[in-house]
């Protein structure tokens, strides 16, 4: 009876591990989607609001989900404090500070770093072109991650359940 209960617990634990691994994959996909939404929001704000940069970032921070909302808020505060600073360098510093909270692939993180250049352009058309290019690159990254997701999900589930079954065999 105890061995049967142990087998059930091991199988439940391996199922929980599989769910945890799949949830981690979904989180990575979700953050990439949120970054794509952020680029779209930045494009809309730059095009239609025409307000000062710290104010624009504060407005975006209120309407953006974490961790990007906090990143925008911090960038706005730093830009307001040091008006003479180089904006792309300041943006990179803020992004580097938030890097541990961001679960992004390297390509998506590079797109996020390029957003600082958007704020430094004086031409609206150049800023919008750079944002459009970033959105295209990010959409390609997201599409590639979606195609990888199905295979990795299957692999994680199979590995976790096989490890559980192997442990059950050793228990018996």
Short description:
This protein has helices at residues 2-48, 53-62, 68-81, 87-98, 106-120, 124-171. The chain is an all-alpha fold and 172 residues long. Helix 4 packs antiparallel against helix 5 and helix 5 runs antiparallel to helix 6 (124-171).
Question: What does this entry look like structurally?
Answer:
The chain has 172 residues and is mainly α. 85% of the residues lie in helices and 0% in strands. The chain has helices at 2-48, 53-62, 68-81, 87-98, 106-120, 124-171. It is elongated. It starts with a helix and ends with a helix. The model has no long low-confidence stretch (mean pLDDT 84).
β-strand number: 0
DSSP summary: helix tally: 6
**Estimated structural class:** mainly alpha
Mean pLDDT over the full residue set? 84
Helical coverage, percent range: over 70%
Features:
172 residues, elongated, mainly alpha, 85% helix
Topology:
Blueprint (H helix, E strand, L loop, with lengths): L1 H47 L4 H10 L5 H14 L5 H12 L7 H15 L3 H48 L1
Helix pairs in contact: 1-6, 2-3, 3-4, 4-5, 5-6
């Amino acid at each position: 009876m105890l061995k049967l209960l142990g087998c059930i617990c091991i199988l439940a634990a391996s199922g929980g591990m599989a769910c945890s691994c799949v949830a981690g994959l979904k989180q990575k996909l979700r953050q990439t989607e949120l970054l794509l939404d952020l680029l779209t929001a930045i494009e809309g704000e730059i095009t239609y609001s025409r307000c000062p940069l710290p104010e624009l970032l504060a407005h975006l921070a209120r309407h953006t989900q974490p961790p990007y909302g906090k990143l925008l808020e911090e960038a706005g505060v730093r830009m307001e404090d040091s008006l003479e600073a180089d904006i792309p360098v300041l943006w990179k510093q803020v992004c580097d500070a938030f890097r541990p909270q961001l679960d992004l692939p390297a390509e998506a993180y590079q797109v996020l770093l390029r957003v600082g250049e958007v704020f430094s352009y004086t031409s609206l058309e150049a800023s919008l072109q750079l944002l459009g290019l970033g959105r295209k690159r990010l959409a390609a990254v997201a599409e590639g991650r979606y195609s990888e997701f199905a295979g990795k999900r299957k692999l994680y589930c199979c590995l976790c359940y096989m490890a559980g079954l192997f442990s059950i065999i050793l228990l018996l």
